[in-house]
Amino acid sequence: MTQDALNTHQEQETFLDFDTVLRESKVMEILSQLDHELIGLKPVKTRIREIAALLLVDKMRKQLELSSQTPSLHMSFTGNPGTGKTTVALRMAEILHRLGYVRKGHLVAVTRDDLVGQYIGHTAPKTKEVLKRAMGGVLFIDEAYYLYREENERDYGQETIEILLQVMENQRDDLVVILAGYKDRMERFFRSNPGMRSRIAHHIDFPDYTAKELLRIAELMLDEQHYRFSSPAQEAFRSYLDRRMAMPNFANARSVRNALDRARLRQANRLFAKGGRLSKGDLMTIEADDILASRVFSGSPDQDHASV
Fold first, then answer.
1. CA dihedral 55, 61, 62, 68 (to 10 degrees)
2. What is the distance between the alpha carbons of residues 209 and 83, in angstroms, rounded to a whole number?
3. Above 70 in pLDDT, residue 256?
4. Do residues 178 and 139 make contact, with C-beta atoms less than 8 angstroms apart?
5. Strand partners, 165
6. Mean of the pLDDT values across residues 242-262?
7. What is the sign, positive or negative, of the torsion defined by CA atoms of 201, 207, 213, 217?
8. Residues of 191-209 as b/e, b for ≥16 C-beta within 10 angstroms?
9. What is the model's pLDDT at position 6?
10. Which helix (H) or strand (E) covers residue 120, if one does?
């Protein structure tokens, strides 16, 4: 047998069982949890599965001593508020931990204010302290484009960006950075910071939810707190969504949660005014009046505190 044939024979005899490696990693548990936690978002979930598959195969290659560079894992999540970016980042951190790409698997979520100082000499210590906390896990920077203020050449955010670039390159085996924000603003940010773009391997766009998906999200949120819509309330909330989605500052699932908080407040006041004997059903049920009292039906949206 020639040497090439011998090598080929040895390669064929050396194998790993993919199903066993997948089961032991418990990655499918996280992917299933993500499916349960988030309605819709099929393109996002597909991309996360693809990344998980890449990392799992890379892990198997290492076990068989096949040389390969650790894939770059820094990411950009773009989309409107309330589309699940933070939740996906949290699950991504768990996947990376279970596959051995980060030591701890925790998520540190920050904004510009957590990283950028207000005077000379303040920014570097703040940024390095955040990075220290994030090491071994994932650093999630929300509204990342605010790090760079093009109109202000002396803005201290540039110092944070330079520190981040260095760490993302030199310590990528111990930290994954996820930048998040509105798609158009993130595009401008990357055009102004090509060094940052070159370090981002995965760009994932989060689509807005449909009205049908938002209604399902609302029902799940209520169920988690042992509430439910009456049939008329469900129709009222469907109408609420149609109106609210057309108004400014709509924040997808975040606006839904805010609307439900206000509906619960109205329900409590309705029951308080009613008094007397209240059944379990009374305490659980959101009625149509609890929805229709919203200012949305008068053309003035309730106040949402929407941020990406």
1. -80
2. 7
3. yes
4. yes
5. none
6. 95
7. positive
8. eebeebbebbebbbebeeb
9. 46
10. none
- Give the mean pLDDT of 281-306: 82
Q: How far apart are CA 292 and CA 233, in angstroms?
A: 8
State percent of the chain over pLDDT 90. 71
Whether 7 shows a pLDDT value over 60: the answer reads no
pLDDT at 9: 47
Find the DSSP H helices in the chain.
Answer: 3-13, 18-25, 27-37, 42-63, 85-98, 112-115, 123-134, 157-170, 183-192, 194-199, 211-224, 231-244, 252-274, 280-284, 288-292
pTM for this predicted structure: 0.85
- What is the reported pLDDT for 121? 82
Q: Which residue has the tokens 């798609």?
A: 183
CA dist 178 and 48 (Å) reads 13
Instruction: Of 194, 282, 185, 287, give the one whose Cα is nearest residue 236.
Output: 287
Joined together, the tokens standing for residue 144 give: 């990342």
- DSSP code per residue over 159-214: HHHHHHHHHHHHSTTT-EEEEEE-HHHHHHHHHH-HHHHHH--EEEEEPPPPHHHH
Contact 93, 125 (CB under 8 A): no
